[in-house]
Amino acid sequence: TIDAAPAGQPPLAVPAFGWGLFEVAAGKTEEALAACRAASQERGCVAVDTAPTYKNEAAVGRALALWPAAFVPFVIVKVPKAVTDPAQVRPTLLKSLGLLGVQCADLLLLHWPSDVVEAGTLTSVWGAMQALVAEGLARGVGVCNFTIGALELLPSPPLLVQVERHPLLPQWELAHYCAARGIVLQAHMPLGGKIGACELLAHVTVARVARECGRTAAQVLLRWNLQHGCAAITRAGAVHAGGNGALAFTIGAEHMHLLDGMSAPP
Fold it and tell me: Which candidate in 54, 74, 126, 177 is catalytic?
């Protein structure tokens, strides 16, 4: 786990690794999470990253009900970007909790900054989220897809910031900002964005490091984030669940330097 301990929030231990449900079809979700469950048995607690806009919360709930009590996952729930009225925050979370079959979100994230900033309700929506922690419906609050500029608009720091992060988009400035404030930086799309995933997985540098480490390209990319102190969420899927979950290895300093340099201009 990685400890989140920003000023003004109760500390929270966040799993370093987790499974994401973005673009996992509802009809495939239970199979995908069953494979993830099997791959996670030796990892202890892992995160399961959900959102109402993924349109698979009910299927996630059915899958979570089958997880052994000793391996109950850390459940991340999101407040959708369309929720700009603070009065909508609580009923939105309650609906998600009901579909997921859990009584409390381990972490409640504000999915996007754009709509609440435009509506001028960021502070009040954030306050409504924090009230849910006090009520016992969430253990902590954080944000997703926020820049440093957007983070500076928050009245208090989040426990976690979830953004796209990988060697072609390393987010160095944001990583330093979060580390200095005790905020966990969590990478979504750590294998590359929707457009660049194939490019990143086949990148000559990634391929070289994977070959020399005796690992897959996906394992190298996930491990790169972990060694930078960042948590990582990779898409749940039956095909790659076992391999992507096997991250008990270390990338050497020379190989980390090669990966770190991938975003540098030629």
Answer: 54
